[in-house]
Amino acid sequence: MEKILICFLFIFFISIQQIDSLLIFRHFNIQISNQLAGNKQLMINCRSGKQQATKVDFLPFNTVWTLKFTVFPKTLIWCNVWMGPNYVHHAKFNAFIGKESFIHDICGGRKPNICFWQAQEDGIYVRNNAAGTFKLMYKWDSTNIKKL
């Protein structure tokens, strides 16, 4: 009986590695690109559930910030971004939701395993990986934040 159980577990784990549709425990990336005009910096801060937020990063023009993670049930990562130089314009958005519908409809699929966001002058865009096109998802709103 023990040998049968070991064989079953071995075959099960091998088959899981072969199933491309399995989302849980898959490695994924969020990337945010700064394409703001005039060499403006982008201030980024993201967080996942009850975990500690990422450090605040200042992203120079034409560079990419990356967050690597493993997908678990109910994974949710949201980000706050502010447009420099005065950081008055702000956007808050769900950068990743661990559901096939979000990955397919928003990120455009899992190949590659990246949900790619881009900050532009009029707002935050997401790239559809399959089509290679960008769609405006969030417009900047003005906030009253204290000087840093």
From TrEMBL:
Key words of the record: Secreted, Self-incompatibility, Signal
Keyword flag Secreted: yes
Coiled coil regions in record: none
First and last residue of the signal peptide: none
GO biological process, one term: rejection of self pollen
Cellular compartment(s): Secreted
Record bears the keyword Secreted: yes
InterPro entries: Self-incomp_S1
Superkingdom, natural source: Eukaryota
Record-level GO cellular component terms: extracellular region
Homology family: Belongs to the plant self-incompatibility (S1) protein family.
Protein name: S-protein homolog
